[in-house]
């Protein structure tokens, strides 16, 4: 199998797993992986992400141009923004998960995750004592404008592990599709804990 075929198969499988967990309902979500040559395998727009086939993954260049004429995810610009900033990132996943959406209803501007052992599931974090700031951006149908906001946040803070889009979902990534899946699972767990804690306290 070529690199592309291998990564396409991993993205298809990721979609099944995320759908099984209830995190990409009703055609929501999008996934991508970067190849060695800098091109990107990404989900086609509008597909049901729990029922993808290899034919639903297409190839784009680093500027987001489709290399086979098909239409990539409407949110391609958000994937490209992460690849541009972080050379070590090889996969970006975007679930529409309940805890991320609920967290964005309860917390404004950012969600701080600290004293969670699962922080260590994220690339580059090796202690529960890490203080992870997950920014929460307002939802926006103008993806280039939203991508600019994310980029400005990275410019200001110099690092970013994930971000939430209010009322929408979140973006997470990693050095492989497997690492990005682990990040999604860990983050959703921590978002869920914070949402429940908020409920207990109020
Ligand atoms: C079901 S609407 C969800 C979309 O608007 C979008 O947010 C999304 O995640 C999927 O868009 P897509 O173009 O299929 O990648
Ligand atoms: Zn989305």
Automatic annotation (TrEMBL):
<comment type="function">
    <text>Catalyzes the dehydration of methylthioribulose-1-phosphate (MTRu-1-P) into 2,3-diketo-5-methylthiopentyl-1-phosphate (DK-MTP-1-P).</text>
</comment>
<feature type="binding site">
    <location>
        <position position="96"/>
    </location>
    <ligand>
        <name>Zn(2+)</name>
    </ligand>
</feature>
<dbReference type="GO" id="GO:0005829">
    <property type="term" value="C:cytosol"/>
</dbReference>
<protein>
    <recommendedName>
        <fullName>Methylthioribulose-1-phosphate dehydratase</fullName>
        <ecNumber>4.2.1.109</ecNumber>
    </recommendedName>
</protein>
<feature type="domain" description="Class II aldolase/adducin N-terminal">
    <location>
        <begin position="9"/>
        <end position="195"/>
    </location>
</feature>
<keyword id="KW-0028">Amino-acid biosynthesis</keyword>
<dbReference type="InterPro" id="IPR036409">
    <property type="entry name" value="Aldolase_II/adducin_N_sf"/>
</dbReference>
<dbReference type="GO" id="GO:0019509">
    <property type="term" value="P:L-methionine salvage from methylthioadenosine"/>
</dbReference>
<dbReference type="GO" id="GO:0046570">
    <property type="term" value="F:methylthioribulose 1-phosphate dehydratase activity"/>
</dbReference>
<keyword id="KW-0862">Zinc</keyword>
<comment type="pathway">
    <text>Amino-acid biosynthesis; L-methionine biosynthesis via salvage pathway; L-methionine from S-methyl-5-thio-alpha-D-ribose 1-phosphate: step 2/6.</text>
</comment>
<keyword id="KW-0456">Lyase</keyword>
<feature type="binding site">
    <location>
        <position position="94"/>
    </location>
    <ligand>
        <name>Zn(2+)</name>
    </ligand>
</feature>
<keyword id="KW-0486">Methionine biosynthesis</keyword>
<keyword id="KW-0479">Metal-binding</keyword>
<dbReference type="InterPro" id="IPR050197">
    <property type="entry name" value="Aldolase_class_II_sugar_metab"/>
</dbReference>
<dbReference type="Pfam" id="PF00596">
    <property type="entry name" value="Aldolase_II"/>
</dbReference>
<dbReference type="InterPro" id="IPR017714">
    <property type="entry name" value="MethylthioRu-1-P_deHdtase_MtnB"/>
</dbReference>
<comment type="similarity">
    <text>Belongs to the aldolase class II family. MtnB subfamily.</text>
</comment>
<dbReference type="GO" id="GO:0008270">
    <property type="term" value="F:zinc ion binding"/>
</dbReference>
<dbReference type="GO" id="GO:0019323">
    <property type="term" value="P:pentose catabolic process"/>
</dbReference>
<dbReference type="InterPro" id="IPR001303">
    <property type="entry name" value="Aldolase_II/adducin_N"/>
</dbReference>
<dbReference type="GO" id="GO:0016832">
    <property type="term" value="F:aldehyde-lyase activity"/>
</dbReference>
């Amino acid at each position: 199998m070529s690199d592309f075929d291998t990564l396409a198969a991993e993205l298809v499988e990721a979609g099944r797993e995320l759908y099984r967990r209830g995190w990409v309902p009703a055609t929501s979500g999008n996934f991508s992986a970067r190849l060695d040559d800098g091109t990107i395998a990404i989900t086609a727009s509008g597909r049901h992400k729990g029922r993808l086939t290899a034919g639903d993954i297409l190839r784009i260049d680093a500027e987001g141009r489709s290399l086979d004429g098909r239409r990539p995810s409407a949110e391609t610009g958000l994937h490209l923004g992460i690849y541009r900033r972080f050379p070590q990132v090889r996969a970006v996943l975007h679930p529409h998960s309940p805890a991320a959406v609920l967290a964005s209803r309860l917390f404004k501007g950012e969600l701080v995750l600290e004293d969670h052992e699962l922080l260590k599931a994220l690339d580059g974090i090796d202690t529960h004592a890490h203080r992870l700031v997950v920014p929460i951006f307002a939802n926006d149908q103008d993806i280039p404008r939203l991508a600019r906001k994310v980029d400005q946040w990275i410019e200001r803070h110099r690092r970013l592990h994930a971000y939430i889009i209010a009322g929408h979902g979140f973006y997470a990534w990693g050095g492989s599709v497997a690492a990005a899946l682990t990040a999604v699972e860990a983050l959703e767990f921590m978002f869920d804990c914070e949402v429940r804690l908020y409920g207990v306290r109020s």
